Amino acid sequence: MFKPRILTFILMCAVFSTHTHAIGLEVKVGGYLFPPFVQMRGQEITGLTLDLIKLLNQEQSQFQFKFVSTSPKRRYRDFKHGMYDVIFFESKQWGWESAPLEESEVFLTGGEVFFTLKSDNRTQAYFEDLESKRLVAILGFHYSFLDNETNSNILKQHHNIKLMNSPKTVINQVLSNKADIGIATYSYLQGQMQHNPHVRDKIIIHDTFDQTYEHKVLIRKGHPLTPRDINALLTRLKNNGAMSQLLAKYGLSQGN
Q1: Rounded average pLDDT over 82-109
Q2: Which tens digit of pLDDT belongs to each residue from 81-91?
Q3: Is the pTM of this model over 0.85?
Q4: What is the CATH class of 21-109+214-249?
Q5: Residue 94: closest CA among 70, 73, 113, 80
Q6: Where are the domains of the chain?
């Protein structure tokens, strides 16, 4: 007399299994304010990372990528606590050396540069002496000129530096002469100069990068999504032209 119940249970399990497979395994992708990869437009989170997630979801059905917001400083703790398992446009050298992570192949390069307010007597030589300058950077970011130190208390003990929460604020600090030299990703500065001519006309960018980096996807070890999987997906987007179109939207190319 229990057979009908057993059969019903088996059928329900089969339906659930089929539905789960159809929508794909959820992959939580962490991301923090890091224009143009993650940025705010009013109250909405937008950017290259979120657009890439949409492309990946359109390209296949095995995985369902979902964005999870974190912050530059909180991203390590959130990963440790399982809030997300994957992070795009990242590098293991940014504080992940001891984390249980695997890496994709490099799929984009970038870098950070110093910039200052234009003035009649300022040339590239102005960037040679940072010790005497009022600096402004982003809280929680790793910088080569600061030996990748992110502890704000230590940094303020040894440098005349202000740490802000967004690159837009960094630019505004320099434009309003509240700081002598700022640092930002070259891609973000290019985007700002493209959309805001007044920024282009008011700043000088150092002709040497503070650091260059290679963007990868970092994946929790043992996760069903493997580096081989993500490499194959990114290669597919590159080969069909979708990646180039996406990067061009943000003024980038495979060489950036």
Answers
A1: 96
A2: 999 999 999 99
A3: no
A4: alpha beta
A5: 73
A6: 21-109+214-249, 111-212
Structure token pair of residue 137:
């950077």
Which tokens go with 186? 């070259």
The one-letter amino acid at 183? I
For residue 16, pLDDT over 60 is answered with: no
Fold observed for domain 111-212: D-Maltodextrin-Binding Protein; domain 2 (3.40.190)
157: tokens are 């003990």
Which tokens in the block code for residue 167?
Answer: 């690159």
DSSP 34: B
Cβ atoms of 142 and 148 closer than 8 Å: yes
Within its chain, how far is the Cα of 255 from the centroid?
A: 17
Structure tokens at 242: 């979708």
Q: Which of 235, 253, 231 is nearest to 244 (CA)?
A: 253
242 pLDDT higher than 70: yes
Specify the residue for token string 């659930």. 16
Cα 129 to Cα 160: distance, rounded to the nearest angstrom: 12
Element (H, E) at 169: helix 167-175
Instruction: Convert the pLDDT of each residue in 17-43 to its tens digit.
Output: 444 445 789 999 999 998 889 998 888
Q: What is the dihedral of CA 34, 36, 40, 44, to 10 degrees?
A: -120
